[in-house]
Amino acid sequence: MNTALSWIKAYVPELACTDQEYCDAMTLSGTKVEGYERLDKNLDKIVVGQVEKIEKHPDADKLIVCQVNVGNETIQIVTGAPNVKEGDKVPVVLDGGKVAGGHDGGPLPEEGIKIKAGKLRGVPSNGMMCSIEELGSSREMYPDAPENGIYILPQDTPVGADAVEVLGLRDTVFEYEITSNRVDCYSILGIAREAAATFRKPFVPPVVEVKENGENVNDYVSVEVKDTDLCTRYCARVCKNIKIGPSPEWMQRRLAASGIRPINNLVDITNYVMEEYGQPMHAFDLDKVAGHKIIVRRAKDGDEFQTLDGQMRKLDSEVLMICDAEKEIGIAGIMGGENSKITDDVKTVLFEAATFNGANIRKSAKRIGLRTDASGIFEKGLDPYNAQAAIDRACQLIEELGCGEVVGGMVDVCEPLPEKKYLSFLPGKYNKLLGTDVSREDMLEIFKRLEIEHIVNSSGEECLGIPSFRQDLEGDADIAEEVARFFGYDKIPTTLPSGEATTGKLSFKMRVEAKARDIAEFCGFSQGMSYSFESPKVFDKLLLPQDSPLRQTVTISNPLGEDFSVMRTISLNGMLTSLATNYNRRNKDVRLYELGNIYLPHALPLTELPDERMQFTLGMYGEGDFFTMKGVIEEFFDVIGMRKKPVYDPKAGKPFLHPGRQANILYDGKVVGYLGEVHPEVLDNYNIGTKAYVAVLDMPEVLPFATFNRKYEGIAKYPAVSRDISMVVPKEILVGQIENMIAQRGGKILESYQLFDIYEGAQIKEGFKSVAYSITFRAKDRTLEENDVAAAMKKILNGLEGLGIELRQ
Amino acid sequence: MKEKLEQIKQEALKQIEVSDALEKLNEVRVNFLGKKGELTAVLKSMKDVAPEDRPKVGQLVNETREEIERVLDEAKTKMERAVREAKMKAEVIDVTLPAKKNNVGHRHPNTIALEEVERIFVGMGYEVVEGPEVEKDYYNFEALNIPADHPAKDEQDTFYITGDILLRTQTSPVQVREMEKGKLPIRMIAPGRVFRSDEVDATHSPSFHQIEGLVIDKNITFADLKGTLAEFARELFGEDTKVKFRPHHFPFTEPSAEVDVSCFKCGGKGCRFCKGSGWIEILGCGMVHPRVLKMSGIDPEEYSGFAFGVGLERIALLKYEIDDMRLLYENDIRFLKQF
Question: A429 lies in which domain range?
Answer without folding.
Answer: 421-491
